[in-house]
Amino acid sequence: xxxxxxVAAVGLTLALAGCASSGGLHPxxxxxxxxxxxxxxxxxxxxxxxxxxxQTDWWVGLGDAQLDALMTEALKNNPSLVVADARVRAAxxxxxxxxxxxxxxxxxxxxVAGARLPASVPALxxxxxxxxxxxxxxxxxxxxxxxxxxxxxxxxxxEARAAEVEAHAARIELSGNLARAYVQLGYAYNQHDVAxxxxxxxxxxxxxxxxxxxxxxxxxxxxxxxxxxxxxxxQQLAQAGNAIxxxxxALAALLGKGPDRGLKIARPQLLPPxxxxxxxxxxxxxxxxxxDLVAARWRVEAAGKDIxxxxxxxxxxxxxxxxxxxxxFGGGNILDLPSRFYTVAPALSLPIFDGGRLRNNLxxxxxxxxxxxxxxxxALVGAVNEVADDVDALRSLRQQxxxxxxxxxxxxxxxxxxxxxxxxxxxxxxxxxTVRQQLLAAEQRMAxxxxxxxxxxxxxxxxxGGGYTPGNGxxxxxTAHASAHTSSSTDNRS
Length: 494
Description:
The chain is built from eleven helices and six strands. The chain has one domain: Outer membrane efflux proteins (OEP) (Up-down Bundle), CATH 1.20.1600. It is an alpha+beta fold. Helix 4 (148-214) packs antiparallel against helix 8, helix 4 packs antiparallel against helix 10 and helix 9 (357-423) runs antiparallel to helix 10 (429-463). It has helices at 4-17, 65-74, 79-100, 148-214, 220-254, 259-263, 282-286, 291-312, 357-423, 429-463, 482-486, and strands at residues 47-48, 105-116, 129-141, 277-278, 317-329, 340-349.
């Protein structure tokens, strides 16, 4: 006995010294500090106000009743939103399964079986048919000594929260895409109007040119040029009609309906562009107003909890199980005292050699954390620069619209003068139609610029979060450096 104790002590010491270790493994990524993303110079000429954040139903402020109705229809039972909601329920169910690992398990069962046991083996039976009856109840529980299972559950909750936020992001994306398609439909109608007017002008110009050719004033070169203008105008009119059909189909798809639904959409008015302004302290506040950034932060938090759960697997694990029941053979009463049985089995396990499974699992969790951090950083940098790009584009479009307004006014004045000259008998109507062509081109450019303004305004609204406000439980804990997630008692060697 005296010899056995030292041998056991030596064996335990060697086992502990050679057990699996998590030493030397840690993630490398760190979330970017939003304050390091400077925007003061880039947005210096833009007014800043907290009121610049979009409202949840920002489209109502545009004053288009048809657009309001389309938004309500699109956000109700849309297939893309059903997909997002189903992913939320799946993630919540996965979190529920992980939570169950924290709790004890109790099972019960009973069975009656008939069998003929061979008489050739007297210890088993006598060669006659008999019944075997049993009933049991079992209990098992693995205490979460190191918090690994709780960390795994928290990671699953983080993934579920990310899925919830991404469902909001899907709604924001849908509303933005619907507004942009609505703008595109209005622009397509404007293009159709200009193309129709151009076709009428080209046909009239060809008629006058044919008269001049017949009178010997012009030659057939001018007539063929007029024919080419008419053909080009027809092509542009057909293209504009196709653009209307395509925009209607796009709206119908966003509504989750067939193409016939698009035919019922009336011609929209051009949506007014939003005011050029950004919220104060944009990078820091943008995190809480963009669903994609909130979801990315949840995934960083979940990845950190996964690391803790993986480290807990290196440590000793305690388990407790118990089984009690009754069993009987033949026609006897199984509730008799001799037929009862029970077992109690506490167990202790410690990983010693696993071929590197635990270390590689932890190494993979570290990589997943670095990936989540990198994706969050990429999303944050992209979001801030996206806002700056949209602001610059809107600022440029305002300047372009102002310049084009001057060109349009000049073209209208030229058309007025050309008509006056024709009526006064000074100039020909063919010359006036040439001026008219310049006016139509200016009107087409102005329509395109205003459509770009409206579209860019919607993009800015989306870049600022589309009116998203995190609900209860959707705000993730503050993301910190990986050491904040991984510094715990699990860093010790097992």
